[in-house]
Amino acid sequence: MSKEWIAVDWGTTHLRVWRMAGREIMAKAASDKGMNTLAADGFEPALLELVEPWLTETPTRVLCCGMVGSRQGWIEAPYRPVPCAPLAETLVRAPTRDPRLDVRIVPGLSQSSPPDVMRGEETQIAGFLALKDGWDGVICLPGTHTKWVHLSAGEVVSFQTFMTGELFALLAGQSVLRHSVDTSGWDAAAFAEAASEAMSRPEALAARLFRLRAAHLLEGPQPARACAELSGLLIGAELAAARPYWLGQNIAVIGADAVARAYVEALSLQGNSATFAKSDAMTQAGLVKASRDTE
Amino acid sequence: MSKEWIAVDWGTTHLRVWRMAGREIMAKAASDKGMNTLAADGFEPALLELVEPWLTETPTRVLCCGMVGSRQGWIEAPYRPVPCAPLAETLVRAPTRDPRLDVRIVPGLSQSSPPDVMRGEETQIAGFLALKDGWDGVICLPGTHTKWVHLSAGEVVSFQTFMTGELFALLAGQSVLRHSVDTSGWDAAAFAEAASEAMSRPEALAARLFRLRAAHLLEGPQPARACAELSGLLIGAELAAARPYWLGQNIAVIGADAVARAYVEALSLQGNSATFAKSDAMTQAGLVKASRDTE
User: Could you list the residue ranges that cross the membrane (chains A, B) (predicted)?
Assistant: First the structure.
């Protein structure tokens, strides 16, 4: 029987746990106790709420990735400077009161020039590489803060973060555009057109955004179209800026289904075919890799 | 004695009134009862709260500009399509119960291609032209939704809106950058550098924004510098996109003090000298013009 352990994806707004036997998932659970809802002494209770039934008298290994390792997290797992392999050889131990827990946190990565940081994505990258041995190229990880990562010979060489996801959420949910955009809608043609337009004139973004509002006032509401256009404009502008990353490269996109597919679609409009991998599966694969490397 | 009337600047979040005798300001008052706090039947009471002491038995003319004339305002004053003079020859009468009030609203302007709208800025433009007879060129009106307006022979020929001010407020107040930016601080050199950088590489905006956060995490907080950089990046990207408007033109900037000066400074870095005029004074001058034109 494979050894049991627990895999944990602990981000800013979510906590997801998997009961593992070797590389097999035996059970899973989740809560909304993300890092930004917890003080330093709140992490152990939040974890126990989900995993207590899985614990035994001998300490269980718990491997965590994500914002749980930030300065505002359980304990700071200092950034490792690139270039380096995505996973550290030693993880950072978190203080616990419960003797049944042996908690370790995967450190994030940093880059000094230009300054940049990641936490959580390094584990997804490690998972992807574990499944695609010898893969070289560029990985795009769309999310609140989208990362573009250049990989070579199993190492992260450089990376760049774009605030595209957060801009979309703020604009669609809190700006004047909220009246004109329905995020449950989609219009694939409008997305493609807006993405192409933003790629050729990325600097026009702030003006093009207001046009969504003006078109609503003058021509009537088209909330699904406006949502796809907003997404296309932001992703198109990002792709224009990230061109030095992806041009002529082997590309993979790791993310949640809908947003990752939008990136794959926008890249294909530029004649690039990208491999798609789901972020949840890559996180699990990365934590499996961390578990084997640090046994 | 000049005839008494009341000038009203009624925007989304504010209500400002001036008791006027001809072009002289006799008194002023203000409240926070902007358009977005009021239902249709709330406008008359909100106005009376401020101006009741100034009313007489004979109806007093009240001239209003701004979002009060939008579909969600007191009564819709339909947009006038450009090209046209900034002020209409006839204003839109708002329904009132109090016989002492004779309320008229200045209509906004619209443009069909590309779709765009303004409300309130047309009055500031009219005020500026009234003070600078025969002025031709381009007016920039920074604000939540900054306008660039091309004027010729006393008419608004075309205009374009940028969501720069709203982006700044969302990013500085609600995004992950809020931890790194202090909007009470300023650093003129950082502003200039960021504005120049964004003008030469406007497409890099979403990446350059996250660098403010990463620099904070890796190099320590510099909240005043980060505020000036954020402003410089957004204004620089806007200037890059608005270049067809201002290049080689006579330029005026109408706005509140600090933000308008930032635009003037950014334009001067590009070798352009712009005339600065305060938005409050231009609104008053525009309403004086409307009062004389429609007597």
Answer: none
